[in-house]
Design a protein that fits this description.
By secondary structure, this protein is of the alpha/beta class. Helices cover about 45% and strands about 15% of the residues.
Length: about 425
């Protein structure tokens, strides 16, 4: 088996402290950990995981390992891996291939390494049985470079909106060779993780990295999906005047009725002090838009890939470039104005902060665990399609979350059940 490829094992104690902190604040995963220890459902099962490698993800890995899984782990962004957390996981005996600020070549190597779980008696490399992905990087590698490992894969789970978009495109083209559960689309994921988690963590990152006030500023939010709704809502709560840009007329109407101004990015560019993109698309904020912006405008991206802000064209056309603050790069444009970009235009809440709160990821990662169980129990009859998370899983997680909070809710009486399922009233 390959050796771990991490930064420094001496960092493990710091990482262990972080993992224990989130563990104490993730009651759903703690419950699953105890269940998995008793039942060992993943004994002999090989799981490859690529998710932002910080403390909450590390605890997810430990929960799956408690169920018997052979875990092979990497990150899902070149800037989001926390080296001390990677070291703490490696110290448990887990296979870990990730470090902070990897080059793209190193990142791609780590993705490939995480897909290999040793060799069989004949020397053939063993692939994963289950893939847990964030942005579909593992799946992309399996379908393009490591097709030899596909026969080992029963299926997988995708964490992000961007990843589900890629998977659905693969399915439409007939290219998807394994069943994939759209974890992102579960109610207990996108309604809470994407909205409340992104909303809080994006502004946590922007505020800690800029040390500037949000109140009184004009904030431009690109997109009005679940993530963007959370970003806009939290910006408004912080006292900002919020502008939304959209391409979907229905979402645009919703943004207006939620109390936000809606306009094109070209119209918004001269007005914004802070711009945040969260669309899942590319070239959302272009250099032509930047030329219209105020001097020292701040740009951040909350989409999975660093393509929403056109960084390639910005690097090409900037006449000067310098670090203006840790995690912030300033670019001087041809008109003399400076544009400040946080975290290289990468996912701002995790590339330059700690990501979503532990209580939010408790729900999302509980969906991941139960979806992995679904793959384990049903893979022999699943088609190579993108599969919705069952309502049963969503309801189970929601009930457990309420129990953890000590909250009781009403239940339908038999009379009410009959009424709701009757047509001849």
């Amino acid at each position: 088996m390959k050796q771990n490829e991490i930064r420094d094992m001496n960092l493990a104690p710091s990482g262990r402290q972080k993992i224990e902190w989130v563990r104490n604040n993730m009651p759903l995963l703690r419950g699953l950990e105890e269940q998995f220890k008793r039942e060992r459902p993943f004994d002999g099962v090989r799981i490859s995981l690529s998710v932002h490698l910080e403390a909450k993800t590390a605890y997810l890995c430990e929960v799956l390992a408690a169920g018997g899984a052979d875990m092979s782990v990497t990150g899902s962004n070149v800037l989001s891996t926390q080296d001390d957390v990677a070291a703490a996981l490696a110290a448990t005996g887990m296979h870990v291939y990730a470090y902070h600020a990897a080059t793209q070549e190193e990142y791609d190597r780590h993705i490939e390494m995480a897909l290999v779980h040793g060799e069989d008696a004949s020397g053939k490399e063993l692939g994963p049985n289950i893939v847990i992905d964030d942005g579909s990087d593992l799946i992309n590698m399996l379908h393009n470079k490591r097709t030899d490992l596909l026969s080992d894969v029963w299926g997988g789970c995708e964490e992000t909106t961007t990843g589900v978009i890629r998977l659905k495109a693969m399915e439409a083209d007939g290219a998807l060779k394994v069943p994939m559960v759209a974890v992102n689309d579960a109610k207990c994921k996108h309604m809470f993780d994407n909205r409340y988690g992104t909303g809080q963590s994006v502004w946590d990152s922007i505020m800690r990295n800029t040390n500037l006030i949000v109140a009184g500023k004009e904030v431009v939010v690109a997109g009005y999906g679940w993530c963007s709704k959370g970003i806009a809502m939290r910006a408004k709560a912080l006292g900002a005047r919020v502008i939304v840009t959209e391409v979907d007329p229905v979402a645009a109407v919703e943004a207006v009725m939620d109390g936000f101004e809606v306009m094109t990015m070209e119209q918004a560019a001269p007005r914004g002090d802070i711009f945040v993109s969260a669309t899942g698309c590319n070239q959302v904020i272009t250099v032509d838009h930047m030329l219209l912006m105020k001097d020292r405008a701040i740009l951040a991206n909350a989409g999975h890939f660093n393509v929403e802000i056109d960084m390639i064209e910005l690097e090409r056309r900037a006449v000067e470039k310098k670090e203006t603050r840790k995690n912030i790069m300033g670019y001087k444009l041809e008109n003399g104005k400076w544009i400040n970009v946080i975290a290289e235009g990468r996912l701002v809440n995790i590339a330059a902060a700690d990501g979503h709160p532990a209580e939010i990821m408790d729900m999302s990662f509980a969906v991941q665990c139960l979806s992995a169980m679904y793959i384990l129990e049903n893979h022999e009859k699943l088609e190579n399609k993108v599969i919705d998370v069952s309502e049963e899983i969503d309801l189970l997680i929601a009930r457990r979350k309420l129990d953890a909070w000590g909250i009781a809710i009403d239940r339908l009486t038999p009379v009410q059940e009959k009424y709701l399922h009757s047509w001849n009233l």
